[in-house]
Amino acid sequence: MPLSEEVTAAAQRWLAIDPDAKTRAEVEGLVAAGDEATLRARLLSGRMEFGTAGLRAAMGAGYDRMNQVTIAQSAQGLVKYLTSQFSAEDLASRGVVVGYDGRYNSDIFAQITANACIAKNVKCRLTSSVVPTPYVAFALRQFNCVAAVVVTASHNPKQDNGYKVYWANGAQIVPPHDGGIAKCIEESLDIDPATVGTAWHAIRGDCPIPAIEERFFATLQPMMERFQKLTSATPLKFTYTAMHGVGGNAVLRARDVAGLPEANFVVVKEQFSPDPEFSTVTFPNPEEGKSSLDLAIAAANAAGSTIILANDPDADRLAVAEKDAATGAWRVLTGNELGALLGWWMCEQNLADDVDFTKCVALSSTVSSQILRAYSRKFGFEFKETLTGFKWMGSIGGAAEDDEDRRIIFAFEQAIGFMCGNRVRDKDGVTALAVAVQMAAVLATQGKTLLQQLQALYAEFGAHVCSESYVTSKDPKRTMAMFDAIKGRDTKTGYPDAIGGIRVENVRDLRESSPIDTRQPDGKPTLPLSSAPMVTFYLEGGAVLTVRGSGTEPKIKWYCEAIAADVAAGQKLVDKIVDGAINEILKPEENGFVRRPE
User: Fold this and answer.
1) For domain 229-331, is the CATH number 2.60.120.620?
2) Alpha-carbon dihedral sign for residues 217, 218, 223, 228
């Protein structure tokens, strides 16, 4: 069957503007095959949504994918928005820093972004090679730029790429900037030939990696000085994997600054260098746990290491596993557990520096463990809870520093993202790794492992036991019906008055259609409303349950935390609440949701 006139015209438009022979050939092949449905989906069914800090999608031809056309349009839209927010003088002198990871096309997408900047007289500092994401977030403020871009899909599969945007405050973009950029992209769909030209050759290397690296580690050095000598004498051995990403060389520098001898640090050679195929892992995501750490575990066992350190491919996140000396089994710490340890360590180091905690702030997202709140009662810093994502922690923490004369001491989210100090206003897996190495070395001198110290923290602050999972929902109407039913109960508030037999004391609903927080005197939430539905239940005894829709995946996620005298009691309570949430709220079988495969 021949293609419709509408699809034929759309394909011709694409072929006229696409500078990439590979994606042109992809469209030409679909035209030759008469694949009306795929062409319509790719060319007529909408664009990638510019949302959570930027773009992320599969690479390929079409407006719903990452390719030279959509990146050129996005880069032009970003530059247009910048010209509306900053003076011509600022744009020409301060400019934008642009970096990229080791994925397919990342360098080309970065070059196109640089071209779009140069075409409008915006100074561009394009990194001289692949770069860890934390380096770019760091360089943004070091060079006083107005914005930054990192071309990366972080821990996504190899077929994906992404486009991460930072604002002048050093944090990922939040409203209203994300919406402003999206609007400007829609107004910048005609591609300037200069955007996909070769002007980038003239500026490659304007932002050499060594220049960033020297500043990055010079500012890390003061954090490391206290325990460098002790760390240099540690008997501990660590095994490290870069997960085929760009963190390897940066982490070797971090190892040296921490004081750890080279002999105590074993790298997984097969995963050390950037590899766009991610050839040894199914998912290049250390958050997956042991399934992504097979090679690291084998290398650690062979070398006699007791701790594994893993970055995700753009090195902004950190996973840690520890070997049980008695059983030989490996235990991968959750993001909440590692956040508890790193948060405690950062508090203790600031205490040793005689810091005025009343002028300090620590942050975690609303779906992460609230153990920092417990720490704040002991140390005296201000604790701030944010929406999910480091864009909120970076922005809110940055505002506390810039406007309230506060200092960020730590921030984390349960998805193994950590901000140790205020040098980088985003998650930083390189700095977190250096801090984790010194923390483990010091604990070893006290005869403690990481997990033993975690138990000590639970004994002092209460066992903060967490659980999270999801169901898959491919029908948005059923998802919204489930969330609507949460408030359709025959109770005083309309929300459930108990979950799993545990009394609900308060509710916070961040949906724009029904915002409420019964903990507040005026009943209004203090957090921004969420584009995806998010309802939190505060239960008797201090337990918390959050149910939220994912903004990027067809999933309904839940997060539960209970605080108890010990882990066993906390786990029992969490299990009871989660069972209640599944059977009383989510009702997967009734609603046609698919449970997460175990």
Assistant:
1) no
2) positive
